[in-house]
Amino acid sequence: MSVNGITPSDLKTILHSKRANIYYLEKCRVQVNGGRVEYVTQEGKDSFYWNIPIANTTAVMLGMGTSVTQMAMREFARAGVMVGFCGTDGTPLYSANEVDIDVSWFCPQSEYRPTSYLQNWVSFWFDEQKRLQAAKQFQYIRLQQIEKYWLASKKQRDKSFHPDSQNLKNSLERARLAMESANDHTTLMLQEAQLTKSLYKLVSQTVGYGHFTRAKRGGGVDMANRFLDQGNYLAYGLAAVATWVTGIPHGLAVMHGKTRRGGLVFDIADLIKDALVMPQAFLAAMEGEDNQMFRQRCINAFQQADALDLMISSLQETAEGSALR
Question: Which of 92, 114, 275, 325 has the greatest count of CB atoms below 10 A from its CB?
């Protein structure tokens, strides 16, 4: 049945992997007006209306002082848009569903998503060794993305970020060898943590940030920590979209599942967090950017790197490949 001459299928003509927009909104009302989804802001006695192109949007994060109407949620669901309620500047993310409270989304309800990826996924997921191999495959993709984008700046003559290429390659090779030899998930996660620590050190040295210690929940006044949290939550939004598109539940994680019910979102976000979010967080902190400027940095980086496309294809290939092993 069509509504205002638009059928639900018309709203899904743009593949999720090719959609351009992620929205973080605060102090506004999201509503439907004349068949379009808009957000309304107030400045004194004046109201300003801004259109949300839902057919080209992957996720909407609703921050402080926002409200959304039932009709707007209906249109988001029809267009396949993830919606999440969150704190100031996008962290933490709240919503009342079954996924972990820090990474949870209102997912569009559809009975016509593919089931083949889920069937392949569960065919290997209960085998711990196959699950470990899938986790390693995600980590190898992560290493490839880090090398690709951290060293791409030299090829593009971008003077803003020039890590020591040999130091980076050595760190990535050590991590790859250690991950290959890991015989359980605990060892693999330990190697992942060591890699991340070395990357923090390298990126802070590269931009001249000085001493850096990763702290959760924003790290107080430390802007790099605050930007890392904000950028990571944007990556979680893309990862939630990727799992929804492929129809694989968030709880069927291959690496983080023992500690977080929404672990698959973390697994998928890890594919691009270090490669794309980490450098931007430190660069934005050094340049004194505000939260909105940093979020735009991340969104631009995600678009240029086809981050959502990578997440979806990685899930699909892992589901198919692991099921055949």
Answer: 275
According to DSSP, the β-strands at 46-51 and 36-43 are antiparallel
Q: Is 287 annotated as a binding residue?
A: no
For the whole model, what pTM was predicted? 0.76
Strand ranges of the sheet holding 28-33, from the earlier edge strand across to the other edge? 46-51, 36-43, 28-33, 66-68
- Residues contacting 220, CB < 8 A, separation 6+: none
Residue 256 assigned to a binding site: yes
Q: Whole-angstrom Cα distance, residue 114 to residue 111?
A: 9
pLDDT tens per residue across span 53-93: 998 888 888 888 899 999 999 898 888 888 888 777 655 55
pLDDT at residue 320, as a whole number: 87
pLDDT on residue 94: 45
DSSP 280-325: HHHHHHHTT--HHHHHHHHHHHHHHTTHHHHHHHHHHHHHHHHHH-
State mean pLDDT over 265-291: 94
DSSP-assigned letters across all residues of 232-279: HHHHHHHHHHHHHHHT--TT--SSSTTT-TTHHHHHHHTTTIIIIIHH
The rounded mean pLDDT for the chain is: 84
